[in-house]
Amino acid sequence: MKDFKSCIFLMADGARADVFEELLNAGDLPAISRYVVEPGAYRGAVSVFPSTTGPAYTPYVFGKYPGRCNFPGIRWLDRRIYADRRKLFSFRRFRSYIGLETYFMNSDASTDNTSIFEVFPRSGNILNELSRGVKLTNDKTRFSKLYHKVKSHFTDRTDEVDLLARRLLVKELGAMHDFIFTVFLGIDTYSHVNHPFHRDVIDSYRRIDETVDAVASRLKAEGRLDETLFVIISDHGLTQTHSHFDSLGFLNARGYKTFYYPNVFRHFVNADAGSLVSGNAMANIYIKSPDGWGRRSTFAEMKQLVEDFLERPEVDVVAGTDEEGKARIKSARGEATAWIGEDGRVNYRKVSGDPFGYNGMPESMTSREALSASFGTEYPDAAVQIMQLLESPRAGDLVLSARLGYDLRAYHENPEHRSSHGSLARDHMMVPFAISARLTDEPVRTVDVYPTILSLLGRPLPDGLDGIDLSV
Ligand SMILES: [Zn+2]
User: Fold this and answer.
1) Ligand 1: centre distance to CA 314 (Å)
2) Distance of CA 153 from the midpoint of ligand 1 (Å)
3) pTM confidence score
4) How far is the CA of 183 from the centre of ligand 1 (A)?
């Protein structure tokens, strides 16, 4: 095993595994081929649910699933704090990371984990919002990131933001960091306003390749190339969207007083439901239980609502918890119960058909077996991903995964989303993973990246990680 001294971590936000592979095989990512994949490895990896920026970063920053970091979406409602009248003006009643509240991301994530920036005190950060532990001086865009994100969101010049990220990264090479996390926004932003195969999107992949070339050439000139580990990864893929489901209007039409962003004052205290959308192909749906907000509603208590959602063409999978706290998963293909036993094994019991269309999924498996058995399907690792999400006290009473082509937010999105992510579907969940080190052959989850990086840089692994070290 090579002795790496530092790591360059590049987040190609929104990159699809299949598009990345196609460009790689066509020779359109020459620097990534030469400096990363040829000396190292390329894998498709399974991300997390919701497959959305923010939650899908927790595997890389904390080595844990978002549900276990109490980070269930880019928008959420905390039913316990929401209902507590003594906490009417608490800043943790609800959240949207779109806008100024992004500055709460670091303090919202649970603290029973070790941030990669805490593992590497000499670390740098560029355009990444989940940066707990990085020194203020080393977070190169802590204050300017909102400006760059707004520019990227409302103008078509995300190319300039990605070029800025490259300039800052090359400049930071002189600081001799152990670890640098840099985010490139072009693929995600251009996909949202066009589609995932648009030329502006493809150019964004190439721009990342040119960045690898610039960085590797500089390190080579300084004799530091061999001791530097390169990691290129994504957090989710995207698919084109032709229709938007008004999940908010759907709940209001059923008589609910539904809390939603951006108009948080509409039901600031009296909501009995909530529609908090991420991606926008995923939604945390909150339903006040017959006993109030103090507990979750059970799947059985929401039976009619579940059926109503599943009658909608836009809704693919609905999940919640039953009286015993087990996950209940339903789709037009069938229904199942899933839970993790005290022995840590994954239990997957079909009630009727199979909600993911799996063929012969074992009833009891290890977590890695659950990954292997579903890796090549249209819903990779879906059962484990639903269970981890529902462990978050801030997760919805129901979680919705949209059918491809649709998303779950009809209003308040400017510019309109023409592509979406966030669901359990393969095209949202499969991400490219290129690393300049050899790996074992087993299937990869994005939570495996954190322990693999620490191991390759000779750092001990903290307890309680959700992934495994894949280095050989
Ligand atoms: Zn996005």
Assistant:
1) 19
2) 10
3) 0.97
4) 13
Q: What is the whole-number distance in angstroms between the Cα of residue 296 and the centre of ligand 1?
A: 29
Average pLDDT over the chain, rounded to an integer = 97
Q: What is the mean pLDDT of residues 271-277?
A: 98
The alpha carbon of 238 and the centre of ligand 1 are apart by a number of angstroms equal to 8
* Ligand 1 centroid from CA 73, angstroms: 12
Which among 208, 150, 147, 159 is positioned nearest to 186, based on CA atoms?
Answer: 159
Domain with CATH 3.40.720.10 in the chain: 6-71+111-239+425-456
For 175-198, write each residue's pLDDT tens digit.
889 999 999 999 999 999 999 999
Confirm if 346 and 365 have CB atoms less than 8 A apart.
yes
Whole-angstrom distance, CA of residue 253 vs CA of residue 256 = 7
Nearest of 176, 184, 171, 179 to residue 118 by alpha carbon: 179
CA of 13 to the centre of ligand 1 (A): 8
CA of 51 relative to ligand 1 center, distance in Å: 9
Residue 14 Cα to ligand 1 midpoint, Å, equals 6
Percent of the chain with pLDDT over 70: 100
Burial class for 146, CB neighbours closer than 10 Å (0-12, 13-18, 19+): middle
Q: How many CB atoms lie within 10 A of CB 9?
A: 24
DSSP annotation of 439: B
Q: Looking at domain 6-71+111-239+425-456, which of 2.60.120.10, 3.30.460.40, 3.40.720.10, 2.60.40.290 is its CATH number?
A: 3.40.720.10
* 3-class DSSP string for 241-260: CCEECCHHHHHHCCCCCEEC
421 CA to centre of ligand 1 in angstroms: 7
- What is the whole-number distance in angstroms between the Cα of residue 152 and the centre of ligand 1? 11
Report the range of poorest mean pLDDT among 143-147, 207-211, 225-229, 349-353.
Answer: 143-147
Ligand 1 center–CA 88 separation, angstroms: 31
